[in-house]
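Hi F.,

I've been meaning to write this up properly since the lab meeting, where we talked about keeping a consistent format for the predictions we share between groups. The idea is simple: the sequence comes first, exactly as it goes in, then the structure tokens exactly as they come out, then a line or two of notes. No screenshots and no reformatting. I'm using this chain as the first example so we have something concrete to point to.
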Amino acid sequence: MIDPSARIDPTAELADDVTVGPWSIIGPNVRVGAGTRIEAHVIVRSHTRIGRNNRIFQYASVGEDPADKKYQGEETWLEIGDDNVFREGVTLHRGTGIGGGLTSIGSDNLMMPYVHVAHDCLVGSHTVFANNVGISGHVQVADWAILGGYAGVNQFLKIGAHAMVGGMTHITNDVPAYVIVSGNPAAVRSINAIGMERRGFDKDAIKAVRDAFKIIYKRGLNLQEAIERLEAKSTEGEVLQVLIDSLEASEKGIHR
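Output, unedited:
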């Protein structure tokens, strides 16, 4: 399952059925889980744990040193879950010592060609990053978020669960859960109702989020006032708590 032209470091641990294509390089302290396919001309640099049933397409660069001047060669890691697809030219960097030492990507994510995930980012599961998306260092992307092609996210920001970022949008503040942000400059549009429907949210849950959106964006309230209003309604279900949690976690302020 390993092409003769591939180069595998002696310290790397590959499950028996892992496929490694021509001219790929697997560096030191790498572990690759069962069923994973690594295509031609892929580099897995070092200190990377890759789970089961992932597919990594040609020319991807996985677990490379972080592009951060503060990085001084300390041991840091990239951890990847299961069932992810990383298309051509995707670049995934390890963490930095000062940033926690870890870049983490969950499971069942699709990253299309030339996506870049910088150092110390935490990406959840079931996300979609379209072509040429770039997320800067220390960004957090929650489960089920979608980022459109060429979207860029500034460092230290958070994209909430089920949120959607439009193509070619520059994100400069946090994006709350369920919210759609698009345009240049970025502007809040609505809730991701179609995405919620596709994921099985019922009409009551979608209505609750739509009403919450009005409280946050249409009532002239500051963020803390909006959170307090939502907390009074949080008994309506977990769907609102996800939104409240994303608002309370914001450190850089939300797009409004």
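Notes:
The chain has a mean pLDDT of 97.
Residues 209 and 240 are 7 Å apart (CA to CA).

If this format works for you, I'll send the rest the same way.

G.
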